[in-house]
Amino acid sequence: MIISSMAKNGAILTAFALVTTGLVASINALTADKIAEQEQLQLTAQLQEVLDPKSYDNELSTDCVIFTDEKLGPYADQVIYRARKNNKPVAVVIRHVTPNGYSGDINLLTAVLSDGTIAGVRTTKHEETPGLGDKVEVKKSLWITTFNNLTVDGEDDARWAVKKDGGQFDQFTGATITPRAVVGSVKNAVLFAQTNFDDIFTAPNAECAEVKK
Amino acid sequence: MSELKTLYKEGVWVNNPALVQLLGLCPLLAVTSTVTNALGLGLATLLVLIGSNVTVSIVRSWVPKDIRIPVFVMIIAGFVTIVQLLMNAYTFGLYQSLGIFIPLIVTNCAIIGRAEAYASKNPVHLSAFDGLMMGLGFMIVLVVLGAMRELIGQGTLFDGADLLLGPWAQSMRIEVFNFDNQFLLAILPPGAFLGLGLLIAAKNVIDAQIKSKQVTPPEAEKGPRARVTSLT
């Protein structure tokens, strides 16, 4: 008696599991292309914000290498995109992370031109306090654009700090930790780009779509 | 007809999932920092609620009592995943700003509550209407709370509406005040708790006034209605 009801209930549960899983799987199959396309669009938009698309003529989002270096953050496998024009190196766009923010990691995207100057910096992901630390987002404040056209002059360039620490960058009212973390991380990324510029371009192309963060 | 009217009253006011049943508070408090986020999550919850209520009502005669809860959970989880995939595909920006709170709709007790308390005992059309009204009640509270917090916190309304509705909605953004610094209390989680508390208080005041105006007591209720939580 109990065995038969167990079998019946089991069968009903299995049937529901099959139907719901099938439904989710088919919707997944239907939307997979569209989702991949949206992610690609978002990546292209991010890259366009830091680097003028007219300055290069290759497919930036697929021409990339993967580097692990403490200058790019505490995690392995940061993606670097390579911009070329007529097969000559123009710029690198580096994804880097700093753990020194006020809460959680801050993910950044920095474009460095071949002469070592910055073309643009954007925050791609952060969990800083709304209203205080979130001014590193370009939507909230233009602060992040103060990096444009700057360059780093060696490891102990004193200008690369917030004003409170004697540098050239504004801190935010009530939030010094966030800009300090961003300034430090961008400085390290630029130094990395300057010292490894040629290595980045000679490295073989990698499958970066799979390490997307 | 009167059944529909009761459902409407129950969902939007008398037994409002957010203000009376106090269900689904995690997404309610977390995403209501702007009207757009609130509306996005409200719509997603509404869709899941209608879908799960309809499905539960359709299958109610085939599901044995002993295994109804796992079946409901599967149905709800399936709908949430579908809504999540669709939002990821068609409202990518909003999907990113709502983040973890879309999958968390699964844990919104209002949904399984309605499946258990109403949809599993009533015909399809009434269950669908119940889902619509409960979802609407939840969404209205989300949007009102979102509007309060966005207005007090950053002085705007409908900021980022284009993420939900497409590029044309950028013109919906209204800047009411302009602050140099945002009013953090409203944007951060404590503001959500204070705002919800004020809304519940306001509802109780209105209820008390309505009651005091009624001279004759309302006709006795037909029987105890199925509800998820009661105030007693």
- Class derived from helix and strand content of chain B: mainly alpha
The mean pLDDT of chain A is 88
Strand order of the largest sheet of chain A: 1-2-3-4-5
Largest sheet of chain B: 2 strands, antiparallel
Count of extended strands of chain A: 5
Percent range for β-strand residues of chain B: under 5%
Q: What string gives the helices and strands of chain B in order?
A: HHHHHHHEHEHH
Oligomerization state of this entry? heterodimer
Largest sheet entry of chain A: 5 strands, antiparallel
> Could you estimate the helical fraction of the residues of chain B in percent?
55-70%
The radius of gyration computed from the alpha-carbon positions of chain B, rounded to a whole number of angstroms, is 19 Å
Distance between the termini of chain B: 29 Å
Number of helices of chain B: 10
Neighbour order of strands in the largest sheet of chain B? 1-2
Mean pLDDT of chain B: 83
Q: N-to-C terminal Cα separation of chain A, in Å?
A: 54 Å
Radius of gyration of chain A: 23 Å
The dominant shape of chain B is globular
Low-pLDDT stretches of chain A are: none
Find the count of extended strands of chain B (DSSP E, 2+ residues).
2
Order of helices and strands of chain A: HEEEEEH
Short description:
With 213 residues, chain A is an alpha+beta fold. Chain A has 2 helices and 5 strands.
Key terms:
heterodimer; A: 213 residues; alpha+beta; five-stranded antiparallel sheet; 5 strands; 18% strand; extended; B: 232 residues; mainly alpha; two-stranded antiparallel sheet; 2 strands; 64% helix; 2% strand; globular
